[in-house]
Design goal:
The radius of gyration is 23 Å and the shape is elongated. Helix 1 packs antiparallel against helix 2, helix 2 packs parallel to helix 4 and helix 3 runs antiparallel to helix 4. It is built from four helices and no strands. With 173 residues, the chain is mainly alpha-helical.
Length: 173
């Protein structure tokens, strides 16, 4: 059986590389994505507490009109984080283990989102000044899943567009 010579200038030689479908992402990369998303959650919780009405900087939490705005600020922060993380992941879809990386990031985003709620509400309770009648809480709990959902949706849409824009090898110009 005769071996074909490797193309000059390619490294590693084709003999040492496995098929791209069976190559996985290194476990450290998966742990990094999950940990980064989880640690981003408390940062979003602090930003939510600072930026939302009735939080640290402005607004009266006893007014019912501020409750919806508080939830919308949280939802907007979650949406922004989801779009940015999804965009970062779409830039790495061609690398091996892309879907494991997406799953790790979405799982980390779900944990980070829950931590954002806990940290924001904890800061609201800690610095409320004894006002327990109208606590700083997230009333729309569905807003907590916007970050992982937006991340998954951005990756899905980018993958779908990538499939639509790829030319078939049978097409000619």
């Amino acid at each position: 059986m005769q071996e074909s010579p490797a193309e000059p200038g390619t490294y590693p030689p084709p003999v040492y590389t496995g098929p791209a479908t069976t190559t996985t992402a290194p476990p450290s990369s998966l742990a990094w994505w999950a940990a980064a998303m989880t640690l981003l959650g408390p940062i979003l919780g602090v930003v939510w507490w600072l930026a939302a009405p009735g939080g640290a900087l402005y607004g009266d939490r006893s007014e019912a009109e501020t409750w919806l705005l508080r939830d919308l600020v949280f939802a907007g922060l979650q949406l922004l984080a989801g779009v940015v993380v999804g965009w970062l992941l779409t830039n790495r879809l061609e690398r091996p283990g892309a879907w494991e990386r997406v799953c790790a990031a979405v799982t980390g985003a779900l944990l980070g989102s829950l931590l954002a709620v806990v940290v924001g509400q904890g800061l609201g309770a800690l610095f409320s000044g004894g006002d327990t009648e109208f606590p700083f809480v997230l009333r729309s709990l569905g807003a907590a899943v916007i970050w992982p959902a937006a991340t998954a949706l951005v990756v899905f849409l980018a993958s779908l567009l990538g499939l639509l824009l790829v030319r078939s090898p049978h097409q000619t110009e």
